[in-house]
Amino acid sequence: MDADLADLLAFDRDHVWHPYSSALSPHAPYLVESAEGVRLHVRDRDGTRREVIDAMSSWWCAIHGYRVPELNAAARGQLDRMAHVMFGGLTHEPAVGLARRLRDLAPDGLEHVFLADSGSVSVEVAMKAALQYHLAAGRPRTRFFTVRGGYHGDTFSPMSVTDPVGGMHSLFRGVLPEHVFAPRPPGGVDRAADDPDLLAWERATTDLFSAHADDIAAVVLEPVLQGAGGMHAYSPHVLGVLHRLARAHGALVVHDEIATGLHRTGPRWAGDRVVSTPDILCVGKALTGGYVSLAAMLCTREVAEGVSRGEAGGLMHGPTFMGNPLACAVAAASLDLVTARDTEAEVARVGRGLAEGLAPARALTSVADVRTLGAVGVVQLREPVRVAEVTAAALARGVWVRPFRDLVYTMPPYVTSGDDLALLTAGLVGAVADVHG
Are strands 295-300 and 280-283 parallel, antiparallel or unpaired? Predict the structure, then answer.
């Protein structure tokens, strides 16, 4: 190992706190030197340089890959004008242009766009808007309804509607608000509406909602695919049930499309699989193509006007970097790429490659399930993943992957070629076989 690499990694170990890690026994990360296309140029801890396919899209956001000419040009052009200006009392073309694109791409009826710093913050804003909406109408409601197994972010309000067992409820008991959790829907996007397990879920969920209906401000859910909660896919019928319950009892519906939006599961929005439009939609992650943090909360005119009629006179949120021009310019360019290409067909192609390439994992004794949905591929094990070992085994096979719980999964960039999908899936299956058998 050369001295510069040793110094970087030593300082990282002693002073840089990584996600979900301990300062007492820190993880040993790999050093990324550059990235291009769908590949990362990585240094092993011994100094070995590797070029590896990114199976993660940098936590699902780099849908176009890296060093994208159109996004680079948008960033450079905006830097020549201004990188940032406050959004309070001022506006600018990048923010207006992005809001226009989002309104045009969103389900019909979502007319107002609130720009936020990150996906978690957009969920915070959505929940705050729902509470203000009911308060302004003179019917204060303080609880939210969701399903078990979900994940909505790591700030406090999103944590409170994230799965109470797999999330952080026990750690922050007494501080997190207690909301209402229906059972996790049975798995399977293609599960028939008259499936006995789905009908049993519907009855239990209806009874639970009815018992708390007068206090429910909104239903919050990830449509069709629960991401960080376990890559659990479920029937769109579930969305229909929850929409009907909310409408019947005067609650709002919030679709958290931070992980699922912009075609990750196939359609532009995972919620497009149902007819009913949500009152509020959150989008993030892929919004800027992985270049810079940005998210948005979109809502109906009814919600925006309802909130604004309240005592506060507006939605009480205003981040310093709200509407950051640099982020907005890159996001608009990213959305231009999404619409210029046949992204739904592109995702379908990736999905076929994942399904074909991951299928051999079913023969492994350690594997409980293999499933795909859009540009998402999952190998679920019968035991917790030995994360460091699987990561190292995949890296040796030319693939960067970040497993969690019992899942070795991939959400690759949409532009990943057929040959690269074959290498990626072979690397994941081989890593699982090497480590877990």
Answer: antiparallel
The model scores a pTM over 0.70 = yes
Residue tagged active-site, from 215, 256, 272, 279: 256
Q: Is 20 a catalytic residue?
A: yes
122 by DSSP, 3-state: which? helix
Catalytic position from the list 66, 133, 151, 409: 151
**What is the per-residue pLDDT across 343-397, written as a single tens digit (0 to 9) for each?**
999 999 999 999 999 999 999 999 999 999 999 999 999 999 999 999 999 999 9
- Give 381: exposed, middle or buried? Use CB within 10 Å, 0-12, 13-18, 19+: buried
Query: Helices in 113-253 by DSSP H: which ranges?
Result: 119-136, 156-160, 196-212, 236-249
Instruction: Please state, in angstroms and as integers, the Cα–Cα distance from residue 197 to each residue in 186, 203, 223, 234, following that order.
Output: 7, 10, 19, 12
d(CA 355, CA 361): 10
The residue among 6, 9, 19 whose CA lies nearest residue 58 is 19
Q: Answer yes or no: 214 catalytic.
A: no
Question: Do residues 224 and 236 make contact, with C-beta atoms less than 8 angstroms apart?
Answer: yes
End-to-end CA distance of the chain: 32
Cα distance between residue 389 and residue 37, in whole Å: 26
Among 66, 117, 272, 285, the active-site one is 285
